[in-house]
Amino acid sequence: MFEINDNYLKLPGSYLFSTIGKKVNAFTQANPDKPIIRLGIGDVTLPLCPKVIEALHSAVDEMADASTFKGYAPDLGYEFLRSAIANQDYRARGVEIEIDEIFISDGAKSDSGNIGDIFSVNNKIAVCDPVYPVYVDTNAMSGRTGEYMAKEERWSNVIYMPCLEENNFAPKLPSETPDMIYLCFPNNPTGSTISKEELQKWVDFANEKGAVIIYDAAYEAYISQENVPHSIYECQGAKTCAIELRSFSKNAGFTGTRLGFTVIPKELKSGDVALNSLWARRHGTKFNGAPYIIQKAGEAVYTEEGQAQVKEQVAYYMNNAKVIREGLADAGFRVSGGVDAPYIWLKTPDNMTSWEFFDYLLERANVVGTPGSGFGPSGEGYFRLTAFGTYENTLAAIERIKNIK
Ligand SMILES: *Cc1c(COP(=O)(O)O)cnc(C)c1O
After folding, report:
1. What backbone phi and psi angles, to 5 degrees, belong to 116?
2. Pairing of strands 212-216, 242-247
3. Does the model's pTM come out above 0.90?
4. What confidence score (pLDDT) does residue 57 get?
5. pLDDT digit string, tens, across residues 263-311
6. Which residues approach ligand 1 with their CB closer than 6 A?
7. How far is the CA of 249 from the centre of ligand 1 (A)?
8. CA of 74 to the centre of ligand 1 (A)
């Protein structure tokens, strides 16, 4: 008889966002006269920019004609897109990445889970705490995280690296030696970043310990400060220890369209085995990448007009971030983030737990946010608000929050 992957049974019950959904539904049913504003969504809301829409239409037309029709895409992705990435995301920042070190995919979420395929189940992972839950969940599914301890809300075989206020929400180097280190900067949910000098310490640590860093740079486009690196490869020696994940989701609105890429430098090796060739092998057999139509849309992002249009969208969200950050600071909240990321992280007032504050905000201001505890044990006592709403709703939500304080 077949057996299942019983690691799935170890996953803790309800996913954060389904609990939120249930609470919001119950509230709106009981209070149909109270319109709620959502500042909890981790999804973009602006439509795809005109240059991308134009590219999509013309790629669809190509698919309609035998002379321009495209079947399976090349394993690593189309060269037109990988060249644009190598030139504009890397070379323009003084980093040389070859086009066969870039692997186009259907998004950073899939890649951050799938990358585990090329690593042993015996590796020990280290994660920022709090962070995007996908890293821990997918490692749990592969059996790399030990047992879930419900009371402590943590896995027995994971190194949690607390990101706390005293360190500006950046982790300290762990005293225990991990094999795989997940770093996400700018961070979801805290909105925090790391300077190039700080990131260099992680690269040196990984090289010294023989660990691999999986660097999630999904929010790279939101960086506004000079000394914050856009890529881990801006650090010396990163090519021998780091994989980088990128996405078109948050910078260009592709959350529903799906496009991302992963960089695996050829120098990154375990013994004499290059991870690049393992991942290439995987792409050849397990993976169909992203459709031609979508890769053409991605190429349009790198045109001059496309760049101007997506930058305008990022600026729109970051203006919301400023409204939230400044409004809440005025109202006496302790806030961080929102400068290099579309996320604002706030300390709950009066020692409320994250979920207590969720209920308080929903009932008193009819505003929905995300409890920090959903992103890891060190998120308890914190709360995430996001800048992806409309400007009008964002303003209105902050007014409501100010009025209950
Ligand atoms: C939204 C997000 C992503 C993007 O994932 P896609 O699959 O490309 O949509 C990746 N990492 C983090 C931390 C995110 O918040």
Report:
1. -60, -25
2. parallel
3. yes
4. 98
5. 999 999 999 999 999 999 999 888 888 999 999 999 999 999 999 999 9
6. 42, 107-110, 132, 184, 188, 216, 218, 247, 249-250, 255, 260
7. 7
8. 24
